[in-house]
Prior knowledge:
alpha+beta; Fusion Protein Consisting Of Minor Coat Protein, Glycine Rich Linker, Tola, And A His Tag, Chain: A, Domain 2; 3 helices; 5 strands; 21% helix; 28% strand
Amino acid sequence: MRALEYACLVVACAGLVACGGSPKQEGAPGSSCQPGRCLEDISAVIQPHRAAARACYDAKPGLAAGTIIMNFEIDPAGVVTEASQSMKDGQLEDVEVVECIGKVLEGLTFAPSTDGKTTRAYHAFEFGRKGPRAQ
Length: 135
């Protein structure tokens, strides 16, 4: 059985926020966080690609505002090997947008695992329609 680490990230319009309690970070006693695999590290890799994920959503102008939560796995070499939508109630459900965001995630490279571990993470993409605000 392979060892797994877990990370939770949320993208909001104002920026990225870590969630899921108080994750142990690198250097903390008993920490399972590896250099390049901590929440801040994963966030730093995803941040520059938010526009690409937004382009996936913008390609569907009729799609309502909402959230798409993507699960993904980072292999020991740092390659995203699997990205899929986390099926939770209330999410936007559009196969083409989900596949597009999956391709964005699968194109990312993270730091290799120093222990040869796979990291499982999820990232919530929050989308709102651009334009004048309703009064």
